[in-house]
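Here is one chain, start to finish.
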Amino acid sequence: MTNNVQVIGVGMIKFVKPGMQEPFNEMAAKAITAAIKDAGIDYREVKQAFAGYVYGDSTSGQSSLYKVGMTGIPVINVNNNCSSGSTALYLARQAVASGVVDCALAFGFEEMRPGPLKSQWTDRVAANQHFQDRLDELAPEHSEIRGSIRTFGQAGTAYIEKYGANPDIFAKVAVKTRSHAINNPYSMFHKPLTVEDVLNAPIIYPPYLTRFMACPPSCGAAAAVVCSEGFAKKHGIHDAVEIISQAMATDTEESYKDPIHLVGADMTRRASKVVYEHAGIGPEDVDVIELHDCFTPNEVITYEGLGLCGEGEAEGFINNEENTYGGRIVINPSGGLMSKGHPLGATGLAQCTELVWQLRGHAEKRQVENARVALQHNLGLGGAVIITMYKKN
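Its structure:
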């Protein structure tokens, strides 16, 4: 890899509940158009495009991009579960870093249905069946509840049992995240929550996981334009944000160790270590983070995976409000997946968009003061995690 890669344009649309969305290709086209406009370049300057989505037919990326314009460039469709958007960004960055192209586009979108995540296929083995089988061995209780609710719910139970933490930390994270979302016009939810609201909500996985600890099914789209440093200089672009380090990790045998590792704790730890070492910047130097809080137990577990606090120390980190404005680091200023929404293929690009806005100083009421270094964590079970570090030029 020879080129420094910069993000020069970002865009997203407001996420909405299923049933309120436009068709996927129209949502994607709006996000792409916004990112191109933000970059201030001609659409024909983009030489490769990478589309992230989960619930869609093959070549949905082409269908979306063609509504912006048909320029004949390569379009690569990416399905990597909830990390599809960041995987598209990962590939776009590689294309530019390697010198294959000077400018590439990553975009993601999703039209989701109401209710819990589930496979669209009933006539074949589920892609994550091996995870559910292992969970049956590790924690056979509540096996009638399947899928991501069980996986993340059991991870939360395992965390409380392992470290003796007060389970109200999961509610406190939800309250913190919602307090950030209030200042984000792109978030789905703007009503404040209290710890009591969260704890008294219906339980979706015993004994701790309630409805307000889970992100909602969502629809939406987001996009980012990346380019080489030379391309940015040639076009007189001065507000670019540099991707100074990025890593992807998938599962190892360690992932089967316990429910905490099944939800990506080890993947996160390995990928973040690579990012910190390559960048020469540790977690103590990061100003703002967008991380994958599909369920609040995962945010708690990810604090430790990213090295923001020591193993078993997340409770103190949360109770001391080190995860919000006025604390050590602001986590999910956008409202995160919990309150902004989680259209699977769009999430990674929406995280990128928020962090670029933060580093440019364009985040308005939710602006993190003097933000110069940002970190992104996007997780897809089955599995892949992508960690990306950005720095203000």
